[in-house]
Each structure stands twice: as structure tokens, then as C-alpha cells.
Design goal:
The complex is a heterodimer of chains A (about 120) and B (about 850).
Chain A lengths: L15 E6 L8 E6 L4 E7 L7 E5 L1 E2 L4 E2 L5 E5 L2 E5 L6 E3 L15 E2 L1 E4 L2 E5 L1
Antiparallel strand pairs in A: 1-12, 2-3, 3-4, 4-10, 5-6, 7-8, 8-9, 11-12
Chain B lengths: L4 E6 L3 H12 L6 E6 L21 H4 L6 H4 L3 E3 L4 E5 L4 E4 L2 E4 L2 E4 L3 E3 L12 E3 L3 H11 L4 E5 L3 H12 L3 E5 L12 H13 L3 E3 L4 E6 L5 E5 L4 E4 L1 E4 L3 E3 L2 H5 L10 E3 L10 E3 L4 E3 L7 H15 L13 E5 L2 E7 L10 E7 L4 E7 L6 E7 L5 H9 L33 E3 L4 E2 H9 L5 H8 L9 H14 L16 H11 L4 H8 L11 H13 L14 H5 L2 E2 L5 E3 L10 H13 L3 E4 L5 E6 L4 H10 L12 E6 L13 H12 L8 E6 L13 E6 L2 E6 L11 E7 L1 H18 L6 H7 L3 H9 L7 H13 L4 H6 L2 H4 L17 E4 L2 E4 L1
The chains are: A mainly beta (about 120), B alpha/beta (about 850).
């Protein structure tokens, strides 16, 4: 069972697919991968030693309408891991994409996991 | 709408100007058309700091308001216009150019310096010290002079003596009384004051009555004293007191006091109810008030009277604290103990540290009646509060003036002050006013200053104000939480000290040893802050693996992210000087990578719209052409702006471009709490606008004048003169110390201007630390700066040589394509975000 699975009837059946390699990630920071099957930009955040240690959020920042989320600063607020947008500094929870400054805004998230040296995404 | 009444104000000095401000603030412009006549060429300026005119400040920086302040508010100001007559019957004032009708008239004509009727006082070289024009005359006369004498050893006389020293003249002070400042100090205090002033190289002659002035033999003039002794000098400044400038009032028949001054009542009304008088021309209850604070109070009362209010002037406390020739002098209340029978005195005299303190206490020992301080005003604020609020003295009043180590010297806590305690007498701000400002939403010292104007006059109350604000904030349960963020319960300053003392080199180590329990990751507040601290302690490349996750995106990619996710690129163009070849390279690079180009305010060229994956290639070409990173992305030194200076300009007195380039190369890469901007001007015309920079340098005939803590931007602030006529080496050394001290002690994202405004002790304290080395930090600060300078390397050159670091410069780690969401359009021949 995957707690991050988003029920959706409109999307084609989701499947786990390789996205990039572990070596492409930067510890305690973000990188961005191109998700061909959805034509989406996925920001990946890697927190080695933490549980979970990998998160995938939409790279698109709805406040600036630019693709910048993966270039923000990773941190935690009240114990919850967050990413701060580099443009207008809003915080988004890594676990579910929820914006902490505006409850109406939530970034898309994807289930991700490691398999050996590969990063897999369910999309 | 009813027609407005006409209000004419004669006099545009400090009090006259304050009156206009009060009229504006009271909203009374809806009711009055205001016209101001100022006899002087300059609009109102800060006469209290007049002597700084000789140490680098000009008329503009002494001005009390912006040039267009009056016009902006619709107030008419006639400068350099003398009112020659008041026609009370016709209710008009007369000037050389016409007659002006008034409904209400306020006299704020101030005073003029009294020159005793001494034979020969009209000779050239006999001068007075009161206005900017007087100072121009003194400066002219000093040009071919080697020495000067001030006749009069009172407060203004000593200020004049300081001014003469500022002009590098051998200076003497001649006083008729047996001691200096006879009004403020007693015999012991006077002796000490004399010793201290003589130690500064100023000759002091007391008990000398000047008889006549004649042609000199070695010098231009010769003073002959009553006892026929003589003193030769090139110029004489008379400072024998001031007299109210009441001629206009006299001529039109207003009631005048026996020894001058326009008689006013509690409402500042003269004997003609249509005419009011304020400031040093006004005589209230047989007294003239020669200080600015009572003048401001009168201005406030006058506005109340004009607008139908009932405010009253009830006299003013003449307590003063001064720094004359660098010597602290303070006098509170009945400093001589002459006014109350049975008064008892405590005296403390330390001949070694040259300190004199005296308390005048009521016969029951419970109330402070007065005090006198020479050599150190440290206890002045506390004593003034005891005096002004009639607070009960401690059981042993002497403890208030004894040195710290030998007893208590209990400072008076802000909590002990009653609501009526006057905190800022310039702007009449009481403790209650401060509490009201806090209740109305002011959240910190700056907020209180903005709301009440407290501490924005003479600034003497800065320390007291801060302690009251801190105390009241705490009392309101506003915990003055100085934690950086939830991860570190320390201020930036404390973290800085920890990092330096413990030699901590990574964020992880700092978090482990000093982070708040339970938080491991940090956040977008503490990570860049710690990164900056580490950089200013050790200057390791910010792209090194351990530091990478700490950086803001701008530092990560060493470029400035713009609103569509692209970056701007700013190579260093030190001092704004660039060869044609390099200029062409910038054009070629911009053309090749389709970058929008714009010239910045810091004399550089900004290339906008660079895609993340293009940054290494762009920098490859720039570095090959000899460019280096400009740190436009960092909280660090940005630019040193300069004018062309003596190389090209007919007015330039030093090579400002050469100095700007040297400074920019010296401090490039210095990471600080916020960005730092410099300016270097080659002459006093100041074309580089250095006084709006964190560090401003203005060339003089003899070297460089250094200004600090200026700012443009949201809240412009004039930089303050810090040191004068420095040679190159002294300039570097002073800036080394200043910048390092700022880096050490400022809060995160605090520019030098805000840092300075929040610095306890203000500019004087800063001068003590940097120039006089009061904390014995100078060598350490210089060494630390030297280490940082030696470790400088261009971050872009470093990154380009390391394939691991370049890996991040791609839009997608798994795909070569550029970010497809970036869309550009064209405008005025260049690309911009769609």
C-alpha cells in the first residue's frame, strides 16, 4: 500500500517508472527531473538518514508562475520537512505539498522510492 | 470654503523650522497660508552641530529638511530675505522687495552673538561664531593664519575653539571669569576642565579682561589685556554670550525686557495678541532659554495658541550634557547649590582619571536638586531622571557618583520612572508617550522612534530610550525573542562568536552542538545566515559540498534569479572602469546567449534572461576575457561607484577611480550580514553619491574623508562623517576594522544604516571602537580581514574547474532539454519575459 497514491480516474493507470539515478540527487537540497509520461517537471528532495528520505513535488511555483521550487532551500518547520520557494519564500510541506502560508494552495506530489541506484516514480 | 488666514513666521532657524513642522503636523495648513522669512542664505540647519562644518559636513548635510520640504507642503519660504519692519497697524511686514500682510505673526528671530565694546573690534580678522556665513568667514580668515584666539570661555566659546582646532590653528581661549564655563561648573570642575582642554593643546587664559585690539607685530592682531600683557594672533572669534535679536519687535513697540527679549506669556503671545514669539528671542518669566529643547516646546505651544488650543509654556529645565573638545560636561538643575537653603553637597574628584562629579541634595537627603559632571557623563541620564521626576534618592546618595568598583552605583531602571518622565526633551516625549506608541502597534525601537520622533533630535537620550522600550516590551509580555529561528536560540551575533571561538566549520556541526533540540534540518532563515557567517570567518568556496544545501538559490547558482526562473549575470567592473575590448565582449556574450542588457546603478552591466544550463558557458567566455564574478547574487560587497576624479576632472583633487578599484579588489567576496555598497568621489562635489552608501569616501586636498552607514533605497540615510583626511593606508585600516566589526555584530539582513541606528552608543561608540580601539579589537579585526582578503578566489573560476559543481547547472538531471516553460517576447529590440 502506498500512502501517497492520489486517486484519479482521469489519468492513465499509474505505474512505477525509473526517473533518474541516486547520484543525480544532492543531499539536503533539490534537483529537477523531466517526467516524460506527464510532460511534468518534478522537484526531488533528498534527505539521507531521514524517513522518508526522498520526496517528489511539482517544480512549478503557483505564486510566481515559474518553475523554481526545486531550487529553494530545504528545511523543517515545527518538525515537518518543507521547501521554501526561492522567489517569494512561501513554504510547502514536502509530505503533501501543502503551502503553509496559504491553505488554498497545494503542490502536486508523486510517490517516489529508491531501487538500488535508481529513483523510481509512480506516475 | 472659508479663505485661509495668513501666518507669517520671521526666522528660519532651528526653532522657526520646528514651528513649521508643528504647523504641518497639527494639520493647521488647512487653516493658514504660511510664509517664512529667513535672513540667512541657507534654509534651516542644525546649529547644534555647527562645528562639524569644518570637519567634513557641508550646509546640505546640516540642513534640517529636504530642499523641497516647504514647497511640498505649500509653505512659502523666502531665504536670504531680511524683514526690515513690522507695521502692526496695517498688519504687514516689510522687506526690501515689498510688503506682506499677515493675520498672525510669529517672531522666531533667535539671537545674535554679543561682541563687547572693545576698542579695535572692527578690525579685519575679528569674527563671531553663530551662522554658516560666520563659519565661512572664519575659514577664509584661517587660510593664511597659524593661530587663533576665542574671547569667551563659555559653552559656545569652547565650541568655537574646537572649530579653530578643526582648521589646524594653534588655539587659545581667553575668559574673563576665573574659570571656564562659569555658568555650568564650579571651581574644582573648572580647574579640571582647564587641565583637560590644555592637554589637547588649547591654551587657556582665565581672569583676563580684554582691553583693546591693535595691529600685531608677528601676527595680524594683538590683544592687549587690562594688565597690559599682550597676546598676538591672526584671528579672533568673539564668543561673549548671545543677545536676543529683538530689534524688529523693539521698533514696532512690543514690550521688551530690561535686558532685551520680547516679553511673552504662557501662550507665547507678545504684548500684541496677533504676534507671538518663540525661541531665543522670547523672554518668559524674565528668562531667555538659550537651548533648542525649550525653543521646540515654545513652538509647540505657539501652534496650539494659533489653532485655539490651551497649551502653556511653563519654563524648561536647563540641564545640559555636552561634549566640548571631546570632554564631557554635564550640569543638572541647581548645579551650584545656590538656590535652595540647606542644600548638601557630595563631591567626587579623581585626579588620575580626571573625573569630577558633584551632587546637590536636599537637606533631608531625599531629593536631588542638582548635579555637575566633568570628564564623564556616564551617570548623567540616571541623575537627570532622579532630578526631573523628584524620585527619592538611595539611602547613600554618594553611591550615584562613586566609581563602579567601589560600590553600587545603581543605575535607575526604566521601571522606576513615572509615566511623566521626560525621555526625549528635544521632541517632548515622555515615558507615557512611548507606552502609547507601543500600545498603538509599534513593535520595536525603530517603530517607537518613527511614531514619537524620540531620540531623533540631539540623540542624547538614545540609550535611555532603548532601555525604556526594551523594558516596556518585556512588561507587555512581548518576549523580546532574539532567537534567529526555531533551530537556533541565539542571535546572529552570538552564533558568529560561537563559530569563531569554537572554530566550527560546517552547518551540521553547529546544529549538532548548538541547535535547538529536536530540529535537524534548519530552514531558509538559519541556513543562509550560517553560510554567511562561515564565509566571513573562513571564506571557503560556497559551492563546496558541505555548504551547498545552505545557499539561497542566488548563491547556489552564483547568479540572480529573476521572476520567470531565469538568472541575471553581473561580472565585476571594478570602480565602473572598463576597457573597450571588455565592453565588446559583454556585447558579444549578450548577443550570443540572447541576454537583455541594462546598465545598473552601481556602474556595471547586468545581463538578464540567462538560462540555468547556459550559465557555465556564459561564464567560460567572460572569464576567458578577463572578467570575474561580481557577487551581485551575494550578501557581500557589491560595487564601489566612482567619479572620474583628478585624472580627467578639472575639480578632482584625488584619483577616485584608482581608489575605487583598489577598494573593490580589497573587499570583493567579503560575505556580510547584508549587501555592502561603496562610493568614492574625487572632490566635494560628490558626483559618486558616496554619502548614500554603506561606505562613502570623499577626496580632500589632504587625503580622504570617510563616511559610514549611508543608504539609498526604501529609507534613504545620509552617511555620517567618520574620519577626515586619511591617507590611503589609514583609510584601508579604518575600513577593515569597520567592516569586520559590522560583520561581527550586525543582525541578519541588517544593512549598515539600520545597524548603526540600533547600535547602542551610536556614532560616538563606533568611533571609540574603530578609531580609538576602545575594545582592543583593532588588530584582530584587521588580521581577520587580511585572512579573508588572502583567501579570495573567484567563485565562478573555482566552479568551472570542477565538473562535480557544474552538474547542478542543468534544468533536468535526466534530460538535456532546456526548461520549456520559459517563454520570452521582444520589447524595444531586446528579449524580456512574456
Amino acid at each position: 500500500m502506498n500512502v501517497f497514491a492520489v486517486a484519479s480516474n482521469t489519468l492513465p493507470a499509474m505505474r512505477w517508472q525509473p526517473l533518474c539515478r541516486r547520484a543525480d540527487l544532492v543531499a539536503f537540497s533539490g534537483v529537477v527531473a523531466w517526467l516524460e509520461t506527464s510532460a511534468a517537471q518534478v522537484a526531488l528532495f533528498y534527505l539521507p538518514g531521514h524517513t522518508p528520505e526522498l520526496y517528489a513535488l511539482d517544480h512549478f511555483d503557483p505564486f510566481s508562475n515559474a518553475c523554481v521550487i526545486g531550487r529553494g532551500i530545504v528545511g523543517d518547520l515545527n518538525g515537518a520537512p518543507v521547501i521554501a520557494s526561492p522567489l517569494y519564500k512561501q513554504h510547502f510541506r514536502l509530505s503533501d505539498g501543502q503551502c503553509l502560508e496559504d491553505e488554498r494552495v497545494q503542490l502536486r506530489t508523486w510517490p517516489v522510492r529508491f531501487e538500488n541506484d535508481h529513483v523510481l516514480i509512480e506516475a | 470654503m472659508a479663505t485661509k488666514e495668513t501666518l507669517i513666521i520671521i526666522g528660519n532657524g532651528m526653532v522657526g523650522h520646528h514651528l513649521v513642522e508643528q504647523v504641518i503636523e497639527a494639520g493647521a495648513l488647512a487653516r493658514f497660508d504660511v510664509t517664512v522669512f529667513g535672513e540667512e542664505r541657507h534654509r534651516a540647519y542644525d546649529r547644534v552641530h555647527l562645528s562639524e562644518y569644518f570637519t567634513g559636513r557641508d550646509a546640505e548635510s546640516l540642513a534640517l529638511c529636504d530642499a523641497d520640504y516647504y514647497a511640498q507642503h505649500g509653505v512659502t519660504l523666502y531665504s536670504n530675505v531680511k524683514v526690515t519692519e513690522i507695521d502692526r497697524a496695517a498688519k504687514t511686514v516689510v522687506t526690501a522687495s515689498g510688503r506682506y500682510a499677515f493675520d498672525h505673526l510669529v517672531l522666531a528671530t533667535g539671537s545674535f552673538p554679543f561682541v563687547p565694546p572693545i576698542e579695535g573690534r572692527e578690525r579685519p580678522g575679528c569674527l563671531v561664531y553663530r551662522t554658516l556665513s560666520d563659519l565661512d568667514a572664519i575659514r577664509d580668515a584661517a587660510r593664511n593664519a597659524t593661530n587663533g584666539v576665542v574671547v569667551g570661555g563659555g559653552l559656545l566659546g569652547l565650541e568655537a575653539a574646537n572649530a579653530l582646532r578643526g582648521l589646524n590653528l594653534d588655539t587659545a581661549v581667553v575668559e574673563f571669569a576665573p574659570r571656564l564655563m562659569p555658568m555650568q561648573v564650579d571651581r574644582e570642575g573648572g580647574e579640571l576642565l582647564k587641565e583637560k582642554i590644555e592637554a589637547l593643546g588649547v591654551q587657556v587664559l582665565t581672569e583676563r579682561a580684554t582691553q583693546r585690539i591693535e595691529q600685531g607685530e608677528q601676527s595680524r592682531l594683538r590683544i592687549v589685556f587690562q594688565d597690559d600683557k599682550v597676546l598676538e594672533t591672526d584671528l579672533i572669534v568673539f564668543s561673549a554670550g548671545i543677545r536676543p535679536q529683538d530689534e524688529l519687535a523693539r521698533d514696532c513697540g512690543l514690550e521688551i525686557g530690561e535686558r532685551g527679549g520680547v516679553v511673552i506669556d504662557d501662550h507665547c503671545r507678545t504684548s500684541d495678541p496677533a504676534i507671538l514669539a518663540v525661541g531665543e528671542v522670547a523672554l518668559w518669566n524674565q528668562s531667555i532659554f538659550g537651548l533648542v529643547a525649550p525653543g521646540y516646546q515654545m513652538a509647540k505651544v505657539a501652534v496650539s495658541t494659533l489653532t485655539g488650543g490651551d497649551a502653556r509654556f511653563g519654563g524648561a529645565d536647563m540641564s545640559t550634557k555636552l561634549k566640548l573638545l571631546g570632554v564631557d560636561v554635564g550640569a543638572i538643575g541647581d548645579a551650584h547649590g545656590e538656590r535652595t537653603p540647606g542644600a548638601r553637597m557630595f563631591r567626587y574628584l579623581d585626579p588620575l582619571t580626571q573625573l569630577y562629579r558633584k551632587l546637590v541634595v536636599s537637606s533631608d537627603g531625599k531629593k536631588l536638586l542638582g548635579a555637575m559632571l566633568v570628564g564623564d557623563n556616564g551617570v548623567y541620564d540616571t541623575l537627570l531622571q532622579y532630578y526631573a521626576n523628584s524620585l527619592e534618592l538611595p539611602k547613600e546618595p554618594a553611591s550615584l557618583i562613586l566609581p563602579q568598583q567601589s560600590g553600587a552605583a545603581p543605575a535607575l531602571g526604566p521601571g522606576a520612572l513615572p509615566d511623566t518622565a521626560m525621555i526625549c526633551s528635544c521632541h517632548n516625549v515622555t515615558k507615557a508617550d512611548i507606552c502609547r506608541a507601543l500600545d498603538a502597534g509599534a513593535q520595536d525601537l525603530a517603530g517607537v522612534k518613527g511614531a514619537t520622533k524620540a531620540s531623533t533630535g540631539c540623540g542624547g537620550c538614545a540609550t535611555l530610550l532603548k532601555s525604556v522600550v526594551d523594558f516596556e516590551l518585556e512588561a507587555r509580555g512581548v518576549e523580546v525573542d532574539t532567537s534567529l529561528c526555531e533551530h537556533f536560540a541565539y542571535t546572529r551575533q552570538a552564533l558568529y562568536d560561537i563559530v569563531r571561538v569554537e572554530g566550527i566549520k560546517t552547518f551540521g556541526e553547529l546544529m549538532e552542538k548548538h541547535g535547538s533540540p529536536g530540529h535537524g534540518l534548519g530552514c531558509d532563515i538559519c541556513k543562509p545566515t550560517v553560510s554567511s557567517i562561515l564565509a566571513s570567518c573562513f571564506n571557503e568556496p560556497i559551492m563546496d559540498a558541505a555548504h551547498v544545501p545552505l545557499q539561497d538559490t542566488n548563491d547556489t547558482f552564483m547568479a540572480n534569479m529573476q521572476k520567470n526562473g531565469t538568472y541575471s549575470v553581473v561580472p565585476r567592473i571594478a570602480g565602473g572602469e572598463i576597457t573597450p575590448e571588455k565592453l565588446m565582449v559583454l556585447g558579444q556574450v549578450a548577443q550570443k546567449f540572447e541576454l537583455y542588457t541594462k546598465v545598473t546603478g552601481g556602474q556595471r552591466i547586468d545581463l538578464f534572461g540567462a538560462r540555468l544550463e547556459d550559465l557555465p558557458a556564459i561564464w567560460g567566455e567572460l572569464i576567458a576575457a578577463g572578467f570575474e564574478t561580481g557577487h551581485a547574487y551575494g550578501k557581500s560587497l557589491r560595487t564601489v561607484k566612482s567619479c572620474v576624479g583628478s585624472t580627467w576632472c578639472r575639480y578632482g583633487v584625488q584619483d577616485s577611480v584608482g581608489m575605487a578599484i583598489a577598494l573593490e579588489h580589497r573587499y570583493k567576496g567579503l560575505r556580510a550580514p547584508h549587501k555592502i555598497k561603496f562610493g568614492v568621489s574625487g572632490c566635494t562635489r560628490e558626483c559618486a553619491e558616496a554619502q548614500s552608501k554603506d561606505i562613502g569616501i570623499i577626496a580632500t586636498e589632504n587625503g580622504w574623508n570617510l563616511y559610514v552607514c549611508g543608504n539609498g533605497g526604501m529609507r534613504p540615510r545620509h552617511a555620517e562623517l567618520f574620519a577626515t583626511d586619511l591617507d590611503d593606508e589609514a583609510l584601508y585600516r579604518t575600513i577593515d576594522r569597520f567592516l569586520m566589526f559590522y560583520v561581527r555584530t550586525a543582525d541578519r539582513l541588517q544593512r549598515t544604516a539600520t545597524w548603526r541606528e540600533n547600535l547602542e552608543g551610536g556614532l560616538d561608540y563606533l568611533k571609540e571602537v574603530i578609531l580609538e580601539d576602545s575594545l582592543s579589537l583593532g588588530d584582530e579585526l584587521e588580521r581577520q580581514m587580511q585572512t579573508l582578503i588572502e583567501r579570495y578566489e573567484c567563485e565562478w573560476a573555482n566552479a568551472l574547474s570542477d565538473p562535480e559543481k557544474l552538474k547542478r547547472f542543468r534544468s533536468f538531471v535526466n534530460d538535456e532539454r532546456p526548461d520549456p516553460s520559459i517563454i520570452m517576447t521582444s520589447e524595444r529590440g531586446q528579449l524580456r519575459p512574456a
